[in-house]
Write a structure and sequence with these properties.
The complex is a heterodimer of chains A (263) and B (310). By secondary structure, chain A is an alpha/beta fold. Chain A is built from eight helices and nine strands. The chains are: A alpha/beta (263), B mainly alpha (310).
């Protein structure tokens, strides 16, 4: 079987603004003005920073994901998890390396992207659905399901700024949950609502997994990784530390850090 | 940190959960509808070359999103107002009243034989649309940060929608021409049909400016502060509250460098049946085409770093 996601030597580096370049160094007004003009001139012609120091958010990351696989992405803060998802969602470009996607991608780095507070629940379902990549026909056909899932039938014509925060996230999650891509990229958005609704989200997620969807899941919740994922990938300092069956990778993560506290 | 537990009974996140999950995983491996992996990837993600062309097919596939964003802007604009879309008429109407009084009655500026209220209303309806469209286009990206950093949509759609949403207001404001033209007993001529292509040129010019400034705005917030002034200067340099005939002959060519000049003059000409200025209109069309190309190219180049610099 061939992979549905193929990531090869993916790198992402960011320039670091160092203290010598910041305004803190200037002490006289004249000097700071001269330097201000000089740096803004440099910014205009250069890459925007002119910094020499660089941060590797991702360095030579390679892995493959098979169709139907649920891959957990774990690692400490600043490991590059979000950068990886952002690159695979095409939000930012890699510095080098490449990734090949062999299916339609739906990414949920946040729920309710594009929700407008002044619009009604009904209007926001259409708007958010369109932003997530659903066609109007798809939204029409799933509309009742979405509303029933979110349990907001009575408030469909109410502006979402009048929603309780629970209603708001339920509606936002409901739209996202009814997105139907081949590959789903999810960043820590599952834990919304009260415990009843969380259970519902979890069941929905399992249903999606059973449907054969390929999923990339970032979370700090190790039980969730163990529950949902077959395999996992451990990132640290922008590099892949370990890939393999979820339980092995989770155990390895525990062994290199005292992350059990994070639970 | 909130943790979702599969069954409410096992919420304790210790090793027993891990053990439990092993069995879950075993059952998961068996059944799954197969997915036919195509031979060639749908998308290849890599660092783009600076000269990569616009992906028009990708843009086209998101035309529904363009529609929804325009629809959102239009819906939201007059939410919680008493007068609603009437504001689209009130704004140029008030300008018309002010300028009819001060410029026509007090300063006695000529209006090329057109009744002065009509002359000013035409100018301000057009200018209100243009400046609002450019301004909201320019601020559209920094006002929709989430659409850039949390999801991937063709970004060009965002400023385009903001500019195009202004057309609804423009159409509403233009409705007032019908009673005004009857009131001042101005005969309609066939030249009024030119209004449609002229509106398209004007919209394209606004699109070009909106797209260009929106891209620059992500990196240099100066745009946000400089643009209102630029637009104000632009307004005074355009024949909105005066006819271009009062510009001294030796300065006429400088005046014609403004792409709006040809459009506004032609707009009035076709409304009121005056002769068209072909040359300045041709220049406006050329300028519009060049501006749109430059804007699209700049946008394309800057787009890849939007999520990082915004």
């Amino acid at each position: 079987m061939r992979p549905i996601i193929k990531v090869v030597d993916l790198c992402k580096q960011y320039p670091l603004v160092t203290r010598t370049q910041s305004a803190l160094r200037y002490d006289t007004l004249r000097e700071s003005m001269v330097n201000g003009v000089r740096t803004s001139f440099k910014r205009l012609i250069g890459n925007g920073y002119g910094a020499k120091e660089r941060l590797w958010a991702l360095k030579d990351v390679s892995f493959e994901v098979m169709p139907g696989e649920v891959l957990g992405v774990i690692g400490p803060n600043g490991a590059g998890k979000s950068t990886l998802l952002q690159i695979l969602s095409r939000i930012i470009e890699p510095s080098s390396g490449y990734a090949e996607l062999y299916g339609r991608v739906g990414s949920l780095l946040e729920i309710g992207t594009g929700f407008h507070p002044d619009l009604s629940g009904r209007e926001n379902v259409y708007l958010n659905g369109a932003i997530l990549g659903m066609s109007r026909k798809e939204i029409n056909s799933r509309f009742d399901e979405i509303v029933a899932f979110a349990e907001v039938e009575r408030f469909l014509e109410t502006a979402v700024k009048r929603y309780s925060s629970g209603m708001y996230v339920r509606l936002a999650f409901a739209v996202a949950a009814h997105l139907n891509p081949d590959i789903l990229i999810v960043d820590e958005v599952l834990a919304v609502g009260d415990s009843d609704f969380q259970k519902k989200c979890f069941d929905k997620m399992e249903e999606v997994i059973k449907g054969g969807r390929t999923i990339l899941l970032v979370t700090h919740s190790m039980p969730l990784i163990a529950q949902l994922c077959e395999n996992a990938i451990l990132l640290k300092g922008g590099q892949v530390q370990k890939v393999g069956p979820a339980e092995d990778v989770v155990n390895h993560y525990y062994s290199i850090s005292d992350a059990s506290v994070a639970l | 940190m909130t943790v979702i537990s599969p069954q409410s009974s096992e919420s304790s996140p210790d090793a027993s959960v891990l053990q439990e999950s092993l069995t879950v995983i075993e059952t998961k491996r068996v059944r799954k509808p197969s997915f036919n992996v195509p031979i060639t990837p749908l998308v290849t993600i890599k660092a783009s070359r600076p000269w990569s062309p616009l992906d028009l097919r990708f843009l086209w596939s998101h035309r529904e999103l363009l529609y929804f964003l325009i629809w959102r802007d239009v819906k939201v604009r007059y939410k919680q107002t008493l007068l609603g879309a009437t504001w689209a008429i009130i704004q140029p109407l008030i300008m018309m009243i002010i300028f009819t009084f001060f410029l026509s009655k007090v300063a006695r500026l000529p209006t090329e034989g057109v009744p002065s209220p009509l002359f000013y209303y035409a100018g301000f309806a057009l200018w209100t649309f243009f400046s609002n469209a450019v301004l909201s286009g320019a601020n559209s990206l920094i006002g929709n940060t989430n659409l850039i950093t949390k999801i991937y949509v063709p970004r060009l759609i965002i400023p385009s929608a903001a500019v195009l949403a202004g057309l609804i207001d423009f159409a509403i404001a233009s409705l007032l021409f019908v009673p005004m033209i009857f009131y001042f007993d101005l005969g309609l001529t066939w030249s009024i049909l030119f209004l449609l292509p002229l509106s398209i040129i004007l919209t394209t010019l606004a699109l070009g400016a909106g797209i260009l400034f929106s891209a620059l705005n992500t990196k240099y917030r100066d745009v946000r502060y400089a643009l209102p002034f630029l637009l104000q200067v632009w307004m005074f340099m355009s024949p909105i509250m005066y006819p271009s005939s009062i510009v001294p002959r030796q300065w006429r060519w400088v005046f014609s460098l403004n792409p709006l000049t040809g459009i506004i003059e032609s707009y009035r000409s076709s409304l009121f049946g005056l002769p068209l200025h072909h040359l300045s209109l041709a220049y406006s069309i050329l300028f519009t085409a060049v501006l749109l190309s430059v804007a699209a190219y700049t946008f394309r180049r800057m787009e890849k770093s939007f999520a990082e610099v915004i």
